[in-house]
Amino acid sequence: MRKGRALAPKPEVLNPILYPLNSKPIGVFDSGIGGLTVVHALNTLLPHENIVYFGDTARVPYGPKSPQVVREYAAQDVEFLISKEVKMVVIACNTVSAVALDIVQKHAHGPVVGVILPGAEAGTKATKNKRIGVIGTRATVGSNAYTNALRQIDREVRVFAQECPLFVPLAEEGWVDHQVTRMVAKEYLFPLTLEKIDTLILGCTHYPILRSAISAAVGRNVALIDSAEATAAEVERTLDEHQLRNLSTHRANLTFYVSDIPTKFAEIGERFLGQKMGQVRRADGFLGG
Question: What is the distance, to the nearest Å, from the Cα of residue 11 to the centroid of all Cα atoms in its chain?
């Protein structure tokens, strides 16, 4: 719970005929496939919430791109989700959350939740020595979004950030327990071990897939913060605050769209989602599709 914020009261039982908005899906988007870890966390915590996911696979990755370009892409991504009549938007991309949160809030027609603040809050709760590491893409680390969020929550926290650009292709390649992945993790994370961190925020939705290699590199005593789980908890709070919970007791419907190559997305995506995906569709009208 954010400091100074009271727990939201339990929502009233609303008539689904009078409140059709509640049954509408949550919109989730990412630059590609990593955001499926957020979908997994949402579906685990909120099994009755319908979800529409969009992955911009034609233009992935967002991390190395300029903030201006990422902001343009984010505006287009959220417009696609709005066309699917979503009731709220979840930015399952650390890069977009870091440099384009305001753009998404401007275009969305409902509440917006990013992954930065929930992850930062979870990190400050976990640390005991107030020395927190953050790993992410170049754009996320360069934005200082996590550093700023962490220090707003607790001014005494010391933050040590590290870019880990090779983690994304390694995760998508499925090299979870590969020797190369362990070597890359050790190379990237050695400087953080010298800083005596006791908490490490996985500042990219791809990174939880590599949890084993990351944990081995920093040491088993370092707490790893999965921003996907923290984001799901924030989405639950937001749904309650706005009385937007789906009243159905049926299992949720998960729908997946991508801007390019649905078959490859489906093949790799099940590893991130943790379950069978079913049909993945190419987004009609997106980038001329």
Answer: 26
Q: Do residues 107 and 242 both lie within one domain?
A: yes
Q: Which residue of the set 93, 157, 197, 244 is catalytic?
A: 93
Q: Is 6 a member of any domain?
A: no
Question: Which of 89, 135, 204, 235 is flagged as catalytic?
Answer: 204
Same domain, 194 and 249: no
* 93 has catalytic annotation: yes
Domain contains 251:
yes
Question: Does one domain contain both 43 and 68?
Answer: yes
Angle, CA of 35, 10 and 254, to the nearest 5°: 30
Prediction pTM value: 0.87
State the residue range of the domain holding 100: 20-114+230-288
**Residue 14 within any structural domain of the chain:** no
Q: Is 164 a catalytic residue?
A: no
Q: What is the pLDDT of residues 111-158, one digit of tens each?
A: 999 999 999 999 999 999 999 999 998 889 999 999 999 999 999 999
